[in-house]
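re the bet — no i am not wrong, look at it urself. input seq straight from the record:
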Amino acid sequence: IAVCLLCVLMRAEGGGREHLQRSNSLDLLADRFRRDVHAAVDVPEKIIDHEAAWDFPLAADGFSHYIRYEARSGYITRNEQTSGQPDRWDTYALPKGCSARIETETAADGRLVGLVITPKDALMAGGREVRIEAVLGRDHRFARRAEGSE
């Protein structure tokens, strides 16, 4: 009985650890995504690779500095590039059985960009979408006002 109880506890602990890692990964992804959208100068009009990758330019020319988010099976990668050279590469684990997409809409204070994480069986299992939203270019709002007043 003691061996069986020990096996059950070890399995539960392993599942709990995995859930905690994925939750932490989702928290880091949300923070990074919001910062990137706030720093971006534009939102991708054209979705790349069948809605699996999105480029957010951080420089006015759109090419010298940008961030690419790519949705893969079970995770999202974030690739920051300057002048075509990768500067940083991060990977964020998604909850099991989830997919991701980017949505944009116009809000009162600017364009709203959302990263939506959806369980594949959302309708059948009562799963809920996770929406990470941010206002595009929020970091540049004072620069635009200063340029307009000159």
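see?? The CA atoms of residues 62 and 142 lie 20 Å apart. told u. also The chain has a mean pLDDT of 77. so pay up
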